[in-house]
Specification:
By secondary structure, the chain is of the alpha/beta class. The strands form four sheets. Strands 2-1-3-6-7 form a five-stranded parallel sheet, with helices on both faces. A four-stranded antiparallel sheet has the order 8-9-10-11, covered by helices on one side. Helix 4 runs parallel beside helix 8. It is globular. The protein folds into two domains: 126 residues, Response regulator (Rossmann fold), CATH 3.40.50.2300; 97 residues, Winged helix-like DNA-binding domain superfamily/Winged helix DNA-binding domain (Arc Repressor Mutant, subunit A). A hairpin with a 3-residue loop joins strand 13 and strand 14. It is 42% helix and 26% strand.
C-alpha cells in the first residue's frame, strides 16, 4: 500500500512552539504533521512518506539523535533539520555526523527557517517532477544520481548520500577543476556564513572526500581561507 506524502514531520515537545510553528508552516502552504514524542514521531514516519523531518533533540521519551539515526537506517538519505536548545559544539557535530541538512538553535527566526525549508523542498520537488535536466552527473569513474542521492562506481558499488551531500557534490562536479568559493557555498546552501555553518561545511567536505576515495583520480583540495577545488585526474595533498 502506497503511503500518503507530506512535506514536513515536526517532532517538538514544547506545546506552544509546536502549535505555533506547525500552524505557521501550514499557513505558508506546507502539509505538516506535528508530534511531540519519539513514539509519536516514529509512528508518523511509518505512516507517511516525508520530504523533511524537523526533530527536537530533547524529547520527553527519548533522544532526537537516536530517533533520527533509526529513521536514517530505515530511509537512507532522509533530509533532516535538528531543532534544539543545545548550543554545544559537540551536539552540533553529532547532528551533522548523522547527515542532518541543518542544525537550528532555539530561539530561531521562523522566516529564516522558512527560507531554508523552501530551498530544500524546491530541489526535492523539481527532482521528483523530472524537471531537473541533470539528474545524473559523472566524474571520473563515479556517477552521482541527483534523484536517488546515490554515488555509484560502475562496478556494482553504490553509496547513499544525504540531500546536502548530493547538492554539494553536484555543485563541485559542475565546477570541477575550478575554485569554488567557500563563502558562496555557505550562502547558497546554508543561507549565511557564520562560524558553525562554516564548521558544518567542513564536515560535509570531509565526508565527500571519503565518498570519492573509490576513484584515485578524484580529490577535493582545500584552499585555506578561500574555498575548494574538486580535481579530476590530479593528486593533491590536503591543505
Amino acid at each position: 500500500m502506497t503511503k500518503d506524502k507530506i512535506d514536513i514531520l515536526l517532532i517538538e515537545d514544547e506545546p506552544d512552539l509546536g502549535e505555533v510553528f506547525s500552524r505557521y508552516l501550514r499557513y505558508k502552504g506546507f502539509t505538516v504533521r506535528w508530534e511531540s514524542t519519539v513514539q509519536g514521531g516514529w509512528a508518523g514516519f511509518q505512516a507517511y512518506t516525508v520530504k523533511l523531518l524537523i526533530i527536537d533533540v530533547q524529547l520527553p521519551d527519548g533522544n532526537g539523535f537516536d530517533l533520527a539515526e533509526r529513521m536514517i537506517q530505515f530511509n537512507p538519505g532522509q533530509p533532516i533539520f535538528f531543532l534544539t536548545a543545545l548550543h554545544e559544539r559537540t551536539s552540533r557535530l553529532k547532528g551533522l555526523s548523522l547527515g542532518a541538512v541543518d542544525y537550528i538553535a532555539k530561539p530561531f527566526d521562523m522566516e529564516e527557517i522558512l527560507l531554508k525549508i523552501r530551498n530544500l523542498l524546491t530541489v526535492a520537488n523539481v527532482t521528483e517532477s523530472g524537471i531537473l535536466s541533470e539528474t545524473e552527473l559523472k566524474i571520473g569513474e563515479l556517477s552521482l544520481n541527483m534523484e536517488q542521492y546515490s554515488l555509484s562506481d560502475g562496478r556494482g558499488g553504490c553509496q547513499k548520500l544525504t540531500v546536502r551531500e548530493a547538492e554539494l557534490l553536484g555543485h563541485l562536479i559542475k565546477n570541477k577543476n575550478l575554485l569554488v568559493n567557500k563563502k558562496e557555498l555557505l550562502l547558497q546552501f546554508w543561507g549565511n556564513t557564520d562560524f558553525f555553518n562554516g564548521k558544518s561545511l567542513e564536515v560535509f567536505i570531509s565526508r565527500l572526500r571519503k565518498a570519492l576515495q573509490r576513484d584515485d583520480s578524484l580529490h577535493i583540495e582545500s584552499i585555506y581561507g578561500v574555498g575548494y577545488i574538486l580535481h579530476e585526474n590530479k593528486t593533491v595533498q590536503d591543505a
